[in-house]
Amino acid sequence: MLPSLSMDQKEREKIGAFARICADVGLFAVVVGIVPITQALGNLFGSMTKAYFVFAVAITLIMWAGQCITLFGVREHKGVFREETATTFKGMFKAIFHNDQLLFTTISMALFMIGYTTTTSFGIYFFKYAYGDENMYSVFAMILGVTQIIALAVFPLFRKRFNRKKLYAASTVLVVLGYILFFFSPMNMIFIGTAGILVFLGEAFIQILMLMFLADTIEYGQWKLGKRNDSVTLSLQPFINKIGGAIASGIVGATVIISGINSAASKADVTEKGLVILKISMFVLPLICIVAGYIVYKRKYMIDEKMYSRIVSDLRERGDINLEE
After folding, report:
1. Structurally, how many domains does the chain consist of?
2. Of 75-79, 146-150, 263-267, 271-275, highest mean pLDDT
3. How many CB atoms lie within 10 A of CB 88?
4. 263 found inside a domain
């Protein structure tokens, strides 16, 4: 609903940052709590199967409650946008593939999400079989969660001083440095924690920037194709997230088998070669994806602040939007 709430880039950034903060609070609450909560439930019910079932039901109920807040609490601005006919199935593909900026943003975002989700999906395996203490996973996740929330909270402050292009470049540099440090770090929480902070600080900025890039392609598509298609455009975000998650799961599954982790009971049962395979899949492959996503953006994305302002001005002159409402 973000594009329907505001067409001002700065206001969208504030709304998007706050939404991401709330999302990250929920995400990392689960990441931090899943091991101790399921263990406690397992002791209570005498079965880990029942423990995960109760945990899943609780998470589902919380999700429904959150959706109800949006459903009953958010009000759209009426009269701002010109009334349009419903988008057909054929029109959906036209809205996606004829909007070049949306297409390039989708590719860039998908590459980033594949890298980001692959790294996070390896978390529990890394701390159990490489670090040697899976209980430290919750501590590490809490550090990263706080890092991301702080990064999103200060994003509007950085945005006042730097444009999106500079912020994306700087964020990518942080991610690269973090991944390199992570790969070569000894199994020491100081080094690993520092690397994690660098990676997730940069990735938090990239996440919010990607959402803004995606939102701005709506006005671009309306300007170029004559139809807004905001629902079609923004529905690509969860689709991209699911694609990223599916590919990440495939990478994790293949890595666990190839490295021998699937048959290992502890760190002592994993060979040095197996640990190297784990680290390559967790750090090298994701880094390649994230850098590739940045290159696609750098070479193909052209909706900067100046162009977006011109697009909105043209849409107002054409009568497609009415910002006085």
Report:
1. 1
2. 271-275
3. 10
4. yes
Helix H, strand E, coil C: the string for the chain is CHHHHCCCHHHHHHHHHHHHHHHHHHHHHHHHHHHHHHHHHHHHHCCHHHHHHHHHHHHHHHHHHHHHHHHHHCCCCCCCECCCCCCCHHHHHHHHHCCHHHHHHHHHHHHHHHHHHHHHHCHHHHHHHHHCCCCHHHHHHHHHHHHHHHHHHHHHHHHHHCCHHHHHHHHHHHHHHHHHHHHHCCCCHHHHHHHHHHHHHHHHHHHHHHHHHHHHHHHHHHHHHCCCCHHHHHCHHHHHHHHHHHHHHHHHHHHHHHHCHHHCCCHHHCCHHHHHHHHHHHHHHHHHHHHHHHHHHHHHCCCCHHHHHHHHHHHHHHCCECCCC
Model-wide pTM > 0.90: no
Mean pLDDT across 220-245: 87
C-alpha 135 chain-centroid distance: 25
Distance CA 309, CA 161 (A): 18
**Residue 153: which domain range?**
89-313
What's 149's domain CATH number?
1.20.1250.20
Burial of 68 (0-12, 13-18, 19+ CB in 10 A): exposed
Has residue 26 been placed in a domain?
Answer: no
Quote the DSSP letter at residue 132.
Answer: S
Spatial contact of 142 and 174, defined as CB atoms under 8 Å apart: no
Give the tens place of pLDDT for each residue, 199-232: 999 999 998 999 899 989 999 999 998 888 888 8
pLDDT of res. 325 = 43
Cβ-Cβ contacts under 8 Å for 189 (sequence gap 6 or more): 136, 139, 140
